[in-house]
Amino acid sequence: MADSARRHLQVEARLAIRWSSAWGPVSFALALALGACRGPVEPNNACVLDCSEIQDDADSDAPAPTDSLSPILDVPSPAADASTASVDSQDDFGASGSVDVASSVDVAAEPVDAGLETDIISANFTWPVHVFAPYVDATLYPFQKLTDVAKSTGQRWFTLAFIVDKTGSGCEASWGTYYTLAAGPDAWVGGQQLLMYDDLALLRQLYQGDVAVSFGGASGTPLEVACKDVGSLKTQLAKVVQTLQVQRIDFDIEGIWLTETKPGQSGERRAQAIASLQDDLKKAGTPLQVWLTLPVLPSGLAADGLATLAQTLENGVELGGINVMTMDYGDGAAPAPAGKMGKYAIDAATALQAQLGSAYQKIGKSKSQAELWAMVGATPMVGLNDVATETFHIADASELLVFAQQKGLGLLAMWSVNRDHPCNQATVQLNCSSITDQGVDWQFTSTFSALNGK
Predict the structure, then answer these.
(1) Residue 49 has pLDDT above 70, yes or no
(2) Annotated catalytic residue: which of 254, 260, 268, 399?
(3) Whether 260 is catalytic
(4) Which pLDDT value is given to residue 18?
(5) Of 35, 71, 212, 395, which alpha carbon lies 20 to 30 A from 434's?
């Protein structure tokens, strides 16, 4: 998620390289050792070498979610001919069958142990103005059940990552290239096939939670690059919004793609497609909030980030805000970072707030200080970062939370929910933080969640 030109030691493996869909390469051998894999795997839960090419027998029978709602856009539903997604499981998804869910749900109560309708239902409530919505690596196997996090911590808001082009040139939305948009990520647990879209439906029904969907990331080909015209790109963005019935989307723009801000390049297509989609949805009474996630230094956005912000505003996008990746700065920009990662994140957010004010002034619009702070987001990489000297501790999280509450930041996030577990490791892990001062599971999530609704 941070600027790949400034970091990431590439781990070469002879057999294959298995990239994180977010912030850096890890070898397949490492993923196997961690019990983690990307993309669909065989029903016996065994990681296979090339996850993206597996077409096990179960895939042909896997149910796909149905969009049971009236279309909000004039685009085909990718699951229009599929049967309703449901899972016969005893692992918090409930038994087979379905029951009617009362409109008034006690979200503090434990989920009922009964089958529930698991269509991708839309969330009929509004996101908090100030929200913690951590990233979830949706392509990491097995997928992280959002309902488990909600049950354990009360956290209800998440950002699912990442949507990229399926092949690199086909203009087709997918989850990290590994899963189709229509079916979404799945996992085999105890001989049962679990579907991420079922879990999303339960998050909305039982906990009144919701997700944003993030496009891009450091790996894969962004849709705005694979789609060569505004119309086809807009169609793919609309399909994602319609399939998952989301109110909020995010674009993680980094690496070489951050430099494509000239006329006719991917940055212009992205901005124009977003603006057109927002206009359609606003007319339909279902406005879409859009955030950009960009690399940052403690001094603020660099030139490429500022150019992307300016281009987005000039093309008429109504921005919810800018979320900055407060991580992987490098020793030159953030010297002696031990014990200072919270402060460096605060410095970056403070600089961004001023840069946002200047950007809006340039297009003839003015915003109050409070409005600008509400457009600021910050996303640290919890625990050990890709830059070995940078570690984001629980104390840093507490420091950043207090600042966010005082200033009224619109968004805190983190990379990632998958890593919010303690472990004593000398290297970055996919499924834990690699630090020992984290005492319990979900401690970063529990700390940051105090921002919700404040």
Answers:
(1) no
(2) 254
(3) no
(4) 28
(5) 212
Q: How far apart are the first and last CA of the chain?
A: 27
Entry pTM = 0.79
Would you say residue 4 lies in a domain? no
d(CA 293, CA 215): 10
Q: How confident is the model at residue 17 (pLDDT cuts 50, 70, 90)?
A: very low
Of 434, 442, 445, 440, the closest CA to residue 30 belongs to 434
| Among candidate residues 127, 1, 283, the one with its CA nearest the CA of residue 275 | 283
SS3 354: helix
Of 263, 253, 339, 240, the closest CA to residue 304 belongs to 253
Please report whether residue 285 resides in a domain.
yes
Higher-confidence residue of 334 and 111: namely 334
d(CA 416, CA 432): 9
Among 279, 276, 213, 288, CA closest to 243: 213
Q: Hey, what long-range contacts does 7-14 have (CB within 8 A, 24 or more apart)?
A: 7/328, 7/330, 7/386, 7/387, 8/218, 8/328, 8/386, 9/386
CA–CA dist 338, 234 (Å, integer): 43
Domain residue limits at 71:
17-451
Q: How far apart are CA 237 and CA 248, in angstroms?
A: 12
- Whether 420 is covered by a domain: the verdict is yes
Nearest partner of 239 among 217, 258, 223, judged by Cα = 223
What pLDDT score does 124 carry? 72
Whether residue 8 lies inside any domain: the answer is no
Decide: 32 and 47 in contact? Cβ < 8 Å. yes
The number of distinct structural domains making up the chain is 1
Instruction: Of 226, 137, 149, 145, give the one whose Cα is nearest residue 178.
Output: 137
Whose CA is closest to 329, among 386, 257, 407, 272? Answer: 386
Residue 39 pLDDT greater than 80, yes or no: no
Tens digit of pLDDT for each residue in 220-236? 999 999 999 999 999 99
- Report the range of poorest mean pLDDT among 27-36, 103-112, 131-140, 438-447: 103-112
100: pLDDT strictly greater than 60: no
Q: Could you give the residue ranges of the DSSP H alpha helices within 284-385?
A: 303-314, 341-362, 369-373
CATH number for the domain spanning 234: value is 3.20.20.80
